[in-house]
Amino acid sequence: MLGFMDLQSLLDDLAREVAPFAAQGKVADYIPALAAVDPTRFGIALAMTDGQLYGSGDWRVPFSIQSVSKAFSLALVLARDGEALWKRVGREPSGNPFNSLVQLEYEKGIPRNPFLNAGALILIDRLLSLTGDSLGTLRDFLRAESGNPTVDIDPEVAASEATHGHRNAALAHFMASCGNLENPVERVLDHYFRQCALTMSCADLAKAGLFLANHGLRADGSRLLTRSEAKRINSIMLTCGTYDAAGDFAYRVGLPGKSGVGGGILAVLPERGVLCVWSPALDPHGNGVAGVEALDRFTTRTGWSIF
Ligand code: GLN
Questions:
Q1: Residues 6+ apart with CB under 8 A from 180
Q2: Which residues are catalytic?
């Protein structure tokens, strides 16, 4: 087992080594508020199941978590609703971009998986029906698990997404036309845009994700998910969490992961801990270039992958 000093110096080495990779990517500019983020930022945090926390670079700097939030939404819906979800959304990789419209029409308004934008809209719709406040339920959960009561949305990012969210609106309206939404389109979109605009640091996210490494047990020891449900969420992260780059991510990193266009990626080391990286310059699939490189080097050097 690697000790405290080894892990800390490994994260410091990775932060230094992957810095040049930022030049290979581009910040998400289809959401104007995200275009202003400095592309050279880099943070990495590792929260261990034994309570240790390590970090390097900008690991305490909050950023827009975007689609990383969808791993948490899936957990909150599965915990409340179980298998019923799978009547409304699939669990196969799509091989298509996260905001693609074309497959949704062929497949009659049933999104391929819960991490595509269309699939996440289904998660939010269901959580709205179950709780009356999808965003509030998620925010409270993230605050509790990260131990950071200040976790909140960035209203400027949320407004920017709403103004430029035509594609997401198209996905939601199409699913409504197929009878696959329970709540009004505008309400679902409002919760979706604000959820994507939640702001957290690598340290917050790594801690918040620990239940995925802990077979479904929350920070206070209570159970959110059964062991089998936690396994299923990790499996979907492995196969679908980085969209049409999921095969390449699995090949390089060998861990379940969930990315977002803010540049964050959460990666689960079952029973050991959770890594979170932040690198806003993205590859064409919407995954942070330096972050994927750091995760690749981390699992290569430690041997800590699921394979
Ligand atoms: N808010 C983003 C969108 O709707 C989320 C996409 C992502 O992070 N992959 O396009």
A1: 88, 109, 110, 122
A2: 67, 70, 192, 243, 261
Alpha carbons 116 and 111: distance in angstroms, whole number = 7
Cβ of 28 less than 6 Å from ligand 1 = no
Q: Are 286 and 27 in contact (CB under 8 A)?
A: no
- Beta bridge pairs of residue 217: 223
Q: How far apart are CA 270 and CA 275, in angstroms?
A: 11
Q: Could you tell me the distance, in angstroms and rounded to a whole number, from the CA of residue 168 to the centre of ligand 1?
A: 9
Pairing mode, strands 152-153 and 198-200: antiparallel
Q: Is 117 in the pocket of ligand 1 (CB under 6 A)?
A: yes
Q: pTM here? A: 0.97
Q: How far is the CA of 204 from the centre of ligand 1 (A)?
A: 20
- Which residue carries 């959304």 as its tokens? 89
Write the DSSP string, 8-22. Answer: HHHHHHHHHHHGGGG
Which pair of tokens denotes residue 303? Answer: 């041997």
Ligand 1 pocket: which of 261, 266, 279 to mutate (most atoms <8 Å of CB)?
261
Can you tell me whether residue 81 is helix, strand or coil? helix
Does the beta carbon of 67 sit less than 6 angstroms from any atom of ligand 1? yes
Ligand 1 center–CA 177 separation, angstroms: 22
Q: Residue 118 is inside which H or E element, if any?
A: helix 117-131
Q: Assess whether the C-beta atom of 33 lies below 6 angstroms from ligand 1.
A: no
> What phi and psi, each to the nearest 5 degrees, are found at residue 105?
-75, -45
Structural domains for the chain: 4-302 (3.40.710.10)
Please list the rounded mean pLDDT of every run of 10 residues in the chain (307 residues): 84 98 96 95 98 98 98 98 96 94 96 98 98 98 98 98 97 98 98 98 98 98 98 98 96 98 98 98 97 98 95
CB neighbourhood size of 217 (10 A): 17
